[in-house]
User: Fold these one by one.
Assistant:
Number 1:
Amino acid sequence: MAADRPIIGVDKRVPVAKAIPLGIQHFMSMFGSTVLVPFLTGLSPSLAIMCSGIGTILYLLVTRGKIPSYLGSSFAFITPIAMVASSQGVGAVGGALIVTGLVYVAVAGIIKVAGTGWLDFILPAPVVAPVIVVIGLGLSATAVKMAFFNGGYDSGAPFSYEGFAVAALTLAVSVVFSTCFRGFWSTIPVLIGVLVGYAASCMLGLVDFQPIAEAAWIGLPTLTAPTFDLGAIILIAPVAIVIIIEHIGHLLVVGEVVGKNYNDMLPRSLLGDGLSTMVSGFLGGTPTTTYAENIGVMSATRVYSTQIFWYAGGIAFIVGGFCPKIEAIINSIPTSVMGGVSLLLFGLIASNGLRMLVSNRVDFSKARNLMLVSAILVVGVGMETAGIKIPVGAYEIPGMATSAIVGVILNLCLPKDTVADKTYPAGEAGGDVPVKTQE
């Protein structure tokens, strides 16, 4: 059973024969979201895949292989990038992304000097845990649309019974291999689920083989040199603040999953993400960010070794940069298959947030904790699932960032001790014996 499966730690080594399929599993998990961003913004999908591989490897180098994370295309930049790409070209997008990466680097430097002690003050467990839940459940609408509507992310697509059946099969196979198998097979449930779902899709006629037949075995992506335009920079670069908030949230999730405190590694983590985005800008690719999908894979497999992410990054670099045929095969996987996997992965992220509430013994008899968690969950999940973003000039603040901001403000403003938070000794007012709890 999954509970009996040994944990493969961050610093552990995995035999190559096992590391390759584990790396492919992480690659498959990020593929759909990473290619969606360039598809919506007019950039190159192949280049986005290649840059995600380069960015992940660069991130691992900067963090000295201590943080297991994969960097893929960031959704937060979609609107401004689409605007700049259509009016000023891909080169202007690249120049703006280079400046965006410099914003990451500057913030990383400030945090390095100021320290990270402030994180524990403004981001206690009653704030962080529900934000983690929001990260998972906020993506639930996307996962459901992918699973129920084989046409893709558009909620206006007709319901597909074949797609739903394939998604259900993919989910079921992933769950069974994760919980009922031991050894190596229990570490690649997502990959097995995708393969079984893809085979079923082929039998149901859901796969278009024409693009695969037309794709070349060897090819190179089209690179675009950056140009620097002040208007494009002003439109794109400030979005970095939203991504930095998201980045901190993801880093806290990773720490909760693997059982490590990565607060001291935050400057290096942000630096790695910033340098990755800058490299994408120089090549004409998409901005990068740490990926929740891959965090979900770690939670499902209990394999945390950063060695696997070196393989995942290398696979992405080769497929995106040099092998259009393999890219076409992967791109032919129906959306419903990836939706079935996403239902599991996004749910696991949310579950880690709930686990954090339990492990930190957050006391919900205290009105302060109750109000914090309630406000964060409703604002974040509500905005994300409804697709609502707060417009601020030319920018939009998504639900995850908004819920984090709400949580931080409430945590700083609400008094620590109130009458409503009084803890009664055993026998009084139905109370229990007080225990040490997370404020």
Note: Strands lie at 71-73, 288-290, 390-392, 395-397.
Number 2:
Amino acid sequence: MSARDILARLRHGQPLDAEALTWMAQALAEGGVSDAQAGAFAMGICLNGLDDAGRVALTLAMRDSGRVLQWDLDGPVLDKHSTGGVGDCVSLILAPALAACGAYVPMISGRGLGHTGGTLDKLEAIPGVTTQLEEAQFRAVVQAAGCAIVSASGDIAPADKRLYAVRDVTSTVDSLDLITASILSKKLAAGLDGLVLDVKVGSGAFMKDMDESRALAQALSSTATSAGCPTTAVISDMNQPLVPSLGNALEVAEVMRVLTGAAAGPILEVTAELGGGLLASGGLAADAQAGAEAILRAVRDGRALERFARMLAEMGAPVGFADDWQRFLPEAPVICAVKAPRDGVVSAIDGAALGMAVVGLGGGRVVEADQIDPAVGLSEVVRLGARVRQGEPLAMVHAARSEAADAAAEAILAAISLGDAPVAEPKLILERIG
């Protein structure tokens, strides 16, 4: 077996079997192929595609290119993955809620890049919290709190890390097969008993088209299930932020309001939808509806907050954070309102533009090495269908400097459209798959 043989088969449109894909994944992980060969492999997959069996084989090969965790716990090991949106901090509520219901959640998450925020960046807005844990510490946090949200170590799916870097510079990021294998190789390496996928569609998502989102949801759920991890998917609306804040510390504040019972809204609906199906698949609820009700009870009676606080304490958060979280979260020095230019009804929100406004404030990354200011962002963002009067706030900007606040205000005014006719708020859960 050699890279030349595999690339020749791809060039001639011949299918790749599990043996060839396993060889390539190991070669990617161990440096056995050049960047040129890795790029040619990515381009061949992008142009010719894989059949269902090939997609499963590539996913398993990339998973097995590094360490695959195994667990010996008294409950099912469950997790979720979101394709990314704005104001989407579901993981910070769902993980502890699942733990409160008897599951274990070893969530390996990512950082923000582009217009979407990263779960790890949000957690690290809490002073002292570190998400880079050694495996022994990771296991200890999962055992103690029932959940841990951490970054991937270097030995988790190393083939994906190598291939993703090549895809980024060879314009092969948007291959359905490569996206599926990339996402699932890391998730399945966590040793899961069940997985739920939240595939976003709309102005604040990477995918704007329902057909594309459905194709991705089906590919992910069927591939993961065939790889031995029972998986379902939900397609959810992302035509407006899920919570009224964007930015790391500001989204943590929204999470704390939900966990302490001071807020609810769409984020709790999505959390219950995702968690309900997971609990049912893990044998912790009779069906998805019963599971959703269990998730809501865990949030409302404070058990999810207790699990979240325990996880944070294990990961370095200040003592008493959950009791007095407002005192610990960083605040931006410049806070100002973006006022409606006229009376009207909020008719459209460009979520990606709002996300990039946060990046412009310093709250996100253009390239992976960028440093993040955890305090900056937007809050009190209006929702679709809201009626506003001239001079009333469309959002509040939290900035490090007044010049940055002014630039963000211009971006917000361009991103939020006002009309005159009533607008119905879109349905949140659009489709369930698997």
Note: The chain has a mean pLDDT of 94.
Number 3:
Amino acid sequence: MPYNKNKQQAFQAAQQGATEAFDLYEAIVKDSADYGHQLKHLTSEVNEAYQQINNALETATETQRERLEQYQRDLQQIVQDVNGSGE
């Protein structure tokens, strides 16, 4: 039974990590004086979310796997957007 509990916890951690990264991304003000610091924080959150997602994928159910892969795509979109707007 602990295995299933760990599986659920891993999924929830990944879900929370991704949500925090998305929220942070939404909150960033691109012309803010603090943008560089915010960007660093976002990068850190995104990396942490990726790690949590990868951990969760190891034990995920099929339904969870689909959700986790969607989070990965969404995070990738954030990374591309942030890297593309650094002109």
Note: Residues 2-27 form the longest helix (26 residues).
Number 4:
Amino acid sequence: MMRRLFYLAAGAAVGGYVVHRVERARRALTPGGIAQRLEGHVTEYRGALRELNEDLAGAVRDQEEELLRRYAPRERGRTLTEGEGAR
């Protein structure tokens, strides 16, 4: 008797799980479900692209500051006679 009760409970649990998965798959394959998944992917990609853009902008700023520090003319405190433009 206990054995039958166990198999009945196990079958009901497996059957409930299968029904749940089939219903979930059915909802995912409707036009609304497909649009919802696509919208989720687009939102993820948009966030990733925004993050990439911020990282690239920061790297460009850092590189520009380095180049300006290294190659920009230093005119502060110099007079024309000391500079290269005086003749």
Note: The longest helix spans residues 31-71.
